Amino acid sequence: MVAKKSLINCTIARIASLCPHPPLAYLFDMSRVLIAGRLALYPNITMNKRFSSLLLSFVCLSFSSWSVQASPKIETWKTNSGAEVYYVHAPELPMVDMQVVFDAGSSRDGQLPGVAALTSSLLDQGAAGMNADQISSGFESLGAVFGSNAGYDSASVQLRSLTDEPLLSAALENFKKVISKPVFPKDALERRRAQTLIGLQAKQQSPGALARDAFMSAVYQSHPYAQPSAGTEESVAAIKRKDIEAFYKQYYVTKNAMVAIVGAVDRKQAEKIADDITSGLAQGEKAKALANVSQLEKANKVFIEHPSAQTHILVGQPGVKRGDSDYFPLYVGNHVLGGGGMVSRLFAEVREKRGLSYSAYSYFSPMRFEGPFIAGLQTKTEQVGEALFVLMENINRYIETGPTKEELIASKKNITGGYPLRIDSNSKILNYVVVIGYYKLPLDYLDTFNANVDAVTIDQIKDAFKRRVTPDKLVTVMVGLAAEDSEESKEGS
Fold it and tell me: What are the residue ranges of helices labelled H in 327-457?
């Protein structure tokens, strides 16, 4: 006999070496869930080498039938309680991935920055008579995985489960209890508060984190995006249990929710699942609309003294929102400017030609409102001036000229060539489905993605960048030793 745990790990390793289709990380993840689920079905089975071989055959057979769904078909409807549902049938694996997404991100924090993040993190710390350990072990014993998180625009709860019965029904029941009957125990709140405060204190030692928070504050000013999603030490310390309960009661409701389901369940099963997991939620009201993002009226520079080995530089402004007509020209164009890694212009000019930074990059981060356009790098303090000069010079030049024909062709090939890897697992498809549903993008978004990329022209890129990136209104944030003095000592390229 071989120890169960070690043999499981050995089996997983063998699966990884024999199954060629999925990416390794996904394969390991799925293998663990499948194995745990099978053992849950047969808790008294002896985990010997013969059983390991049989299990190996089962899992590899599952993966061998797994194929990339080039264009997942998205279906949508509403639950009986009014929540929107987005569904993709993916029968290749006996698994289902789902998310319930609420308009309950940090943009809803109001006067208590950090309350959305705390609420999300406390959902699985106690619910319906179960404590945190019971909730965790309950999912684990079923081979299911639970998660929760909160961003700027939304908060979500996730479940991954085998579709075998009774495992699926039991996992769904636990999931429903956690999202509809959380109790937010005082001791759990204090633990999470302490953990959050430690993280916020540690952030003071991270120049990159300081730069990011300062950048968002300077770019978004009075808009909710300006507030750090994790809160501040003062706000987190002030949050009470009643604040958590009030936030949950207001935002974790059916009219403020959407459900995304991807996996080996048919439409009828998906309808039943969506109805069931939302039935325990209060109907409530949809969250009120937030104010639009204001465009910057002038440039702004922020300097933060920090004893770091390198100075961190971020430059940017409000960029583009989800569903914006300029999205694809900006996305493709930025791939040439700074989003294409080692083949981008910023990387070539800043690192390859001058050795001023290990990397230089730029990206657009679309959100409900105009998410940020950010260009950034890290450099030695004595090189700050030159590095910033080169960064801005290349941004300005790109706005005027756009990409070359050759750069555009290469960029499109890189983006469309890598597209299959973006939808090569149910979890990745689910993430796209969530974005499509939550931000009301066209249901054929994935179908038309490559065509939209291929349709982008140089003139479209130049036009979009000239309107969306304004050099004389950019925010510049620098965090490092004597950052301001160093910036004044800039050199030409």
Answer: 327-334, 345-346, 384-401, 405-417, 419-422, 426-438, 445-454
How many whole angstroms separate alpha carbon 447 and alpha carbon 375?
30
Query: Is pLDDT above 80 for 6?
Result: no
Quote the CA–CA distance of 468 and 487 in Å, as a whole number: 25
- Which pLDDT belongs to residue 122? 97
Point out the least confidently predicted range of 40-54, 137-151, 293-307. 40-54
Place of tokens 């499109």: 412
- Tell me the DSSP string of 405-418: HHHHHHHHHHHHHT
Superfamily of domain 300-488: Metalloenzyme, LuxS/M16 peptidase-like (3.30.830.10)
The stretch 292-319 carries a mean pLDDT of 95
Tokens in use for 481? 């030793």
Q: Is the pLDDT of residue 424 over 90?
A: no
Q: What CATH topology corresponds to 75-278?
A: Cytochrome Bc1 Complex; Chain A, domain 1 (3.30.830)
Q: What is the mean pLDDT of residues 341-370?
A: 94
Model confidence, pTM: 0.84
d(CA 457, CA 399): 14
Q: Give, in order, the Cα–Cα distances in Å from 259 to each of 83, 145, 150, 430.
A: 7, 17, 16, 10
Question: Taking the chain, what is the end-to-end CA distance rounded to the nearest angstrom?
Answer: 68
Q: Residue 188 corresponds to which tokens in the numbers above?
A: 């759990």
Looking at 27-31, 86-90, 306-310, 451-455, which range is the least confident one?
Answer: 27-31
Q: What is the pLDDT of residues 137-181, one digit of tens each?
A: 999 999 999 999 999 999 999 999 999 999 999 999 999 999 999
- Give the C-alpha separation, 350 to 357, whole Å: 6
Measured CA to CA, the distance from residue 391 to residue 337 in angstroms comes to 11
| CB atoms closer than 10 angstroms to residue 459 | 10
Domain range list for the chain? 4-64, 75-278, 300-488
